[in-house]
Amino acid sequence: MEHPTRLLAQLTVGISLLVTSSIVCVAQVYSPCEAYGQSAAIFVGKVIGTEPVSIKLNPIMGGGVFHARIIRYSVEERFKGEAKVTAEAVAAQSTAGQPDFKLGEQYLIYTFSPVRPYEPDIKAQRALPLSEASAELAYLRRLQKGEPVAGVSGKILQHTLDVINWKLTPVTPPANVRILLENAEGLRRETQTDEKNTYRFDNITPGTYKVIISTPPRLYTPVPQPGVDLIRTPCSHVDFWLQTDGRVSGKVIDADGKPAIYVGVSLIPVELFPTDESLSTGREMHGLGAQADDQGRYEIRGVPPGRYLLGVNLGPGPPEPGWNLFPRTFYAGTSNRSQATHIELPEAGEKSNQDFQLLPRLVTRAITGSVVFSNGDPALCAMVGLIDARFAKTGSAGTQMRVEEGGRFTLTAVDGYRYAVQAYVPVTDKNGRTVGYLPAPSVEVVATENTKPVRLVMPPEANCDFLLNQKQRP
After folding, report:
1. pLDDT, tens digit, for every residue of 11-68?
2. C-alpha angle 204-197-232 in degrees, rounded to nearest 5
């Protein structure tokens, strides 16, 4: 069994501000500013009692027991958390020869996430004798008054993207990148990154701010400019990611000449799509993309240099029914891979006005059927879905639904595509936990106006006994 302090560290969900076996010592010292953001509650408390407690570690997996104590305090000054007269927190057992909690003594207490998620009142703690907490008390009192004691720090990171292999490689970002800090009241401060590509703002009045990067030329950051709440988290950390700002933009219209609103537009390296229009089986088809707006306009940013195919629904399989229900269409308006126009982009280059028209919108069809057990009874607990028939042996339907009354189902498919209809029932243990799935042999169908209902039969060992009993309980 692991050392109790390591186990307690795990139980506090990654927070290292925990009490070691000597109780008053801190395993990892955070600044008061950082500790404030990590903690659930902060208060000055006087010890009024202790009580032994046995904490079951990972009860679902049959973990061991950590013997500890609950320390009960009368709250004398509160800096964070609910205002209560008394509070409790978990501490390790006392160790001979080491300082320990004494009735009537005062401590500055930080409490953290529940030790056991299903018992939210049992929290881990970090305790400092009041005689050793003068600096932290001064900080917390200044923070309560709204004095300028908050800060924001972060780092600039930059990567190059290999789209073909879908791999990021870190590179050194530019020096002296400007970072701005603003709030709604008009406060504006500016700094620059240092030789380690980091920045820092100190002595900030608590409030809500926006951290803004002045993006260097030929680069952009794909992450929106974040807001920080320096009241809840007075020490905030905001990183920025930079990448080459290659751009491809234009407009997509449908077969009637109207904007193809909200469709997804993709940019895929030429190397991933063979000229014979077959799907590449040796690697995944990664690509970049963007969604068109309500005018059909799109802009794909962060494009590395290379040769690309531009279009809609270029990936394998039928498109999902919805706004994007168009057949595969390459720029500039063809379904034929060999006739597609290549988009060639240099480093941080830009291709604008790449407008193209889509082929007529596809038609949806309903595929109906039922799922039954081997004895013919409806499998009322079955889940059912559709997948491109080419991938049925190794994949599963991305969208699945529960069968309806009588085990019947209706699934929406795209006209002309071949699908495999898949179904399964969950396998449960004696405690009702799902431990696996039993599939029915799939059935292939082509979605047409006249597709006949399909019937999927579960293997003999499949049943719904437990799930049906659960459903019948009040």
Report:
1. 222 222 233 222 233 334 568 888 898 888 899 999 998 888 776 665 554 556 667 7
2. 30
Structure tokens given for 442? 């799939």
Per-residue buried b or exposed e for 357-390, using 16+ beta carbons within 10 Å of the residue's own CB: bbbeebeebebebbbbbeeeebbbbbbbbbbebe
| E strand or H helix at 114 | strand 106-116
The whole-angstrom separation of Cα 317 and Cα 310 is: 17
Q: Is 386 left (phi over 0), alpha (psi -120 to 50) or beta?
A: beta
Question: Which DSSP letter does residue 131 get?
Answer: G
Question: DSSP assignment, residue 400?
Answer: E
pLDDT at site 281: 43
Q: How many Cβ atoms from other residues are within 10 Å of residue 189's Cβ? A: 14
Evaluate whether 425 touches 464 at the Cβ level (below 8 Å): yes
Tokens matching residue 190: 């500016």
| Nearest of 252, 247, 245, 236 to residue 215 by alpha carbon | 245
- The DSSP result for 21-89, as a single string, is TTSSSBSSPPPHHHHHHH-SEEEEEEEEEEEEEEEESSGGGT--EEEEEEEEEEEEEEEES---SEEEE
